[in-house]
Write a structure and sequence with these properties.
The radius of gyration is 27 Å and the shape is globular. It has 452 residues and is α+β, with helices and mostly antiparallel strands.
Amino acid sequence: MQAVNRSRSIRRAFTSIGSLAALAGVLAAPAALAQSAPQGQIVIPDDVKIFGNDNPNVRRATAVVNGSVITGTDVDQRLALLVAANKGKISDEEMKRLRLQVLRNLIDETLQIQEAKASDIEVSQAEVDQSYARVAAQNFNQNTSAMDAYLKRIGSSAESLKRQIRGELSWQRLLQRNVAPFINVSEDEVNEMLDRLKAAKGTDEYRLGEIYLAAPAEARQQVYENATQIVQQLREGGSFVAYARQYSQASTAAVGGDLGWIRLAQLPGELATVAREMQPGQLVGPIEVPGGFDILYLIDKRQVLTADPRDAVLALKQISINFPKGISEAKAGEMAEQFANTIKTAKGCGDVDRVAAQAGAQVVANDQVKARDLPGPIQNAILQLSPGETLPPFGSLQDGVRILMLCGRDDPQVDNGPSFEQLQAQMEDDRINKRAQMYLRDLRRDAIIEYN
């Protein structure tokens, strides 16, 4: 599938290896070894203990790509990121398949870094460290030491993640130099697209996530099976963003597969037909498209150039109490009902702090909450409230009971759609993505790859 926007880097997957089968064949044939060595039969016990240095940091080559070594440790550490994203819920069979795909991903990453270097494009260590620090800031409150420790704990490393960052930056800059300057979108093309947008006012617009796997004719069945396994893992709780970053061969891989807001007319026919029937939160695939297979995830849905009530910014107060340890469900229900009745006596947001204090409850205020960011069951209900009104109590025995009170609401302005410059950039990104796919295919075709 061709990405509609956000094409900032491309990490393609995947080729194949098979040396483990050969090793298994050697170990499984002691009788044949006995025939060639009549002085005695070699017996290998099941509970083998290796004496000597079995240091996991000893790095053995798994593949050599144009002279650059990819080790088993490299594969293990990158695979550990996926295992952590799926909370370790991956079968042994799936782990074998993922391992092969991670290796293919690393091969493409190596080709991208090599091609950037051959074009005299350098990504400094300082730039890589800065990007790494931004990731740490998003996940560990700017604590890179905590990030380092977490990666080590899950079996990965800071260096593995930094190599991935270097690959993304290298490919992005390579495309900016060798592809982007030769992409041209005329004013007429942009104006025509703007006219189509205006004509489509009020029609549905979709925010989709994609995972695209290229499938040459000779590998179609294998890729289909791989895509089916990915769908199964996602339905069992796997992270769509993590799988998209590691496996997708569209440029949106760098942003977790997020296509942004698009209309069905911007999708290939096969995908438009499927997306039209999808509901937010639904996953569908694999879907066969020219050149491969797609997995789609509908993140959200809205109407073109129409203000969406869910974009309203709400001022909320959350009032909460905790349940005593070991409380029964029946007693908790009574306590929640009494708490709700007490909060109803508050005369709006200005009075709720006083009432909450009398009830021994905690109050948290936030005046920058988008209705869209609230859980689905709460969104519609809270948009029906007037200032000072509350939702029914919700919670659990472990988390206690909470009540949301609406204190104010700023409705969204009518969406006028993308500007000329934004739409032009979007169309250019789409064309860059198409050229980038061809570019990487050429790099794969010309690569010299040796497998261990």
